[in-house]
Amino acid sequence: MAHRKKSNGSKAKTTLRLPDLEQSKNSLLHSLAAASSQESYGHAIDEFIGWYCSEPRLAFNRTVVLRYRFFLEQKNLAPSTINVRLAAVRRLAYEASDTGLLSPELARYMEPGRLQGLIDQISTQLAAEGKGPFKWKTVPQGAATFVWTAVVAPADDIAGRYCENCHVGKIVPDSVTITGVSEGVPAYALDPANAEALWKKSEEMVGETF
């Protein structure tokens, strides 16, 4: 089950699931003012998500970006096209880190001070809610949801659900922006039709059916 980072002590991930990627994509596209940029980045990110989700649990770090570059080069795309696609992937990674979904695994490749700035931003949001400053989860805390879903929660209650912090995540309206200090999952991220479309797109991209 996917496990979102909760700012007051949660652990960010190195491997992102479809709901995490869709959330980060949605936030990124909303930050772009030009419709042409939204369309270009949206297309590039959709292609990356299709490739990323077809691979066996790749960690989202510099290595996966290099592997994706190799994949694009194998398609004989123009260098300018490849650069545009990779720029969108990097923006997606930054957005995932901004919202607390992606761990510092990628942050080592960020500009100096960027990670601390993100932590300070999250701490400010927490302070506005009367909560303490941001802290990363311990290893047991980070594993808690996975253990809960595996051996504690009734299977009928969690099957096909999005789980976080040892409970089933609530579905929030698509119009609500989910940040690093909030919980929940957009309804579109759990839509079976979207999942089926992504699966078919992934099969097309790798030239295999499963």
Structure summary:
The protein has 210 residues and is mainly alpha-helical.
Provide the gyration radius in Å: 17 Å
Biggest sheet, in brief? 2 strands, antiparallel
- Residues in β-strands, percent: under 5%
Helix content: 55-70%
Determine the structural class based on helices, strands and strand pairing: mainly alpha
Explain how this protein is built.
The structure is a single chain. This protein has 210 residues and is mainly alpha-helical. It has one domain. The chain contains nine helices and four strands; from the N terminus they run ααααααααββββα. The strands form two sheets. A two-stranded antiparallel ribbon has the order 1-2. Strands 3-4 form a two-stranded parallel sheet. A hairpin with a 2-residue loop joins β1 (163-164) and β2 (167-168). α2 crosses α9. It is globular. Residues 1-12 have low confidence and may be disordered.
What are the main properties of this structure?
210 residues; mainly alpha; two-stranded antiparallel ribbon; two-stranded parallel ribbon; 4 strands
Topology at a glance:
Elements: H1 18-31, H2 35-54, H3 62-74, H4 79-98, H5 104-107, H6 114-128, H7 139-152, H8 155-158, E1 163-164, E2 167-168, E3 171-172, E4 185-186, H9 192-206
Parallel strand pairs: 3-4
Antiparallel strand pairs: 1-2
